[in-house]
Amino acid sequence: MIVVVRPVAVFLSTLGLKLGRNERFFLAWMAPRGIVAAAVASVFAMRLVERGFDNYTSLVALVFQAIIGTVVVYGLTASHVARWLKLAKPNPQGVLFAGAQPWAQSIANLLKSEGFEVALVDSNWDNVTTARNAGLRAYYSNILSENLLYDVQLNGIGRLFAITPNDEVNSLATLHFVDVFGTSEVYQLPLSTKSKVERREPRPLHLRGRYLFDKKATHDYLTARFQSGAVVKKTLITEEFNYDSFNSMYGKTALPIFIITESGDLKVCTADSSPSPSPGEKLISIVDEPEDEKKIPPDKNGKSNNR
Fold it and tell me: Above pLDDT 70, what percent of the chain?
């Protein structure tokens, strides 16, 4: 069954589908037995009892042994086989954005240029169309849709950024994806002033995601910053140009959002932590460019060509 029948059945049934060889091998390997096998075994057992067979219990026992055995085997080997076939990464660093507004596209574009997988989900068709035209993978859907996980390719993606204008949707989105990414990798924008006034009490952590970037980095704040000309900037931190030098150049309005380590990992700046990039790391931030640097044209991806 495992070595011959399952692989042959998978390869024949997937003919004509846009599946790679490794994906077919993975499907051929995965064949856990479950509720269907148990139900069929129960029906057969009842029929055997009606016909006077006394050893029907052995059939049920064998079926449940098969169920337990396949669940254990495939459960323990699935992740290892997926990584061996290069269908999964042990520590995915990419980002799923709940929201595809223009400034979200700017952030996603920079991450994509640095080699991170990004995907955007939005229920605004104009935002989705603009994102796709910019070369980003964008999906027209509600982030809370039950079918979203079947539609979105999450290979290489390991965290959620809920950055819609609606604070309640953002919180619900983080709860929706906590089983997918874990509590430490679901983020949302800080609550707007209006939401804070209406709630009067802070929202507990188990009912929301981690707050992104800074306590002041609400949706309205970020939208206003980008509308006033702020840009997403990548800065290589060195011994000569350290974090203090960066702050001296861009001032208190600079908003660090990510740090890319020398090993290529993405560290997300949050409202409850202070960024401390080391030499050799890249600092991604939202800045108002100095007047003398605005004369330098951006590159083809719309990012600053300065330091």
Answer: 70
